[in-house]
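Components:
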Amino acid sequence: MSHLSAFQIFLLLTIVKIAVVLVITLTAVAYTVLLERKVLGRMQNRWGPSRVGPFGLLQPLADGIKLFLKEDLMPFAVERPLFVAAPVIALTCALISISMVPFGQETIYQGVDLFQIANINVGLLVILGITSIGVYGIALSGWSSNNKYSLFGSLRSTAQVISYELALGLSLVGVVLRAGSLSLRDIVNSQSAHGLISWNVFGGLQIVGFFIYLMAAYAETNRSPFDLPEAESELVAGYHTEYSSMKFAMFFMAEYANMITVACVATLLFFGGAGSPFGHTFDHLFATGLIHAVLPVVWFVAKVFAFLLLYIWVRATLPRFRYDQLMGFGWKFLLPVAMVNILATALVLAYRH
Amino acid sequence: MQIVLFTIFGLLAVAAALNMLLQRHPINSALSLVVVMMSLAVLYWSLGAEFLAAAQVIVYAGAIMVLFIFVVMLLNAGEETRTRGSRIAAIAGFPGGAAIFCLLTFVFLKYRTQLGTTQISGMLAGTDSNLTRIAHSLFTTLLLPFEVTSILILIAILGAVVLARKEL
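Structure:
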């Protein structure tokens, strides 16, 4: 590749990285849906999808074909441009934030980090910002549908996401204080010293912050037990009542992509990212070669997978909150506890200095 | 790279601002304002102020404008009616705007040497962070204004709570 300039190599490798990550994320989204249906089925003492392919493994393909081929209804009274734009905004925002995530150990090839699309020094803030832009997708879909149920769903969702964003942001401050940086790569590196015991959730004593983050993240992604925006017993289907075919599929994919993003962020911030739980104990066994580069990615995927299973488990277990309980819980419990957590972390860090 | 970003997002900001004024439905105007905020964030970023850009997106585009849209949706505001506007605005508007533009341009060009320049190559690559510098100046030289501002905001919140209560 000697005849290419440094910028051309950078551009080429970045485009390849984006394509690979996009394909893997979308496949992961499809198979998370299948995972959820299978695991939920087992937890409710039934089989789940089992007809298409071996163990129902081709079910996402069948679902995709079904959604593509369905009639794309455009209701009469919708605000047309916004009605079309809303699912695009939701899916785009859900997919952009995955680009900040470092999937493996820093592996520089021709000046380009292979396991991270963009290493930005305020990466965490960018993820939070993109999450907060994602609200527009839901808010606009409800309003432009010109439907009472949709509007109620999107109003609920907007209020919920704004409220829980505060607790979410504050729960991460403890981690940022410990790492002294907002770059996700630095935060991961700050937890890599001794494996399991130097992860933020254990050794960093950020377990309170972790649980606040977990609950706020469930609310941010509109997942059970905070799935009031699409409470089917009250609101038909919430904000996507009027959507059909691929537009509905985009909302559906956005929800699961958000789940994956949130699981990635939890892994990076509290569970050491791509670091091994054994620290550097076994590093001498495979110090070089392919396995050295691939093993951290395996750890990362395993941790994200565990978070996704936790999501599904919670959905199968807990009933839905009532709306005033939801708001009270966010403002009167999570927010003060997050602030106390920041104060305690700051005091401990100041004492140690 | 920087000049390309500036051209694209500067034009986008101006176009969205014009669209905000010309749109008749409040929700379209509010969305145009969101586009303006995002374009400004990109401009800040290209100037090397990445923290300011992220804060702009989180605070303005992500929180304040969502509340605007929330209120518009809740009140279900209809299309605004066209009026002729005030005569004073029609007479004084364009000359006044042109005068302010000329004044700002004059000041910037005259004191250009004292404004200084930034090197953005290192900042965008993540080697140098202006976050620590902002925090340092906020908590040392600008401590008093910072604390006074926070107390002001606290008073505003309490005032809003008192005003919004049904029974006093």
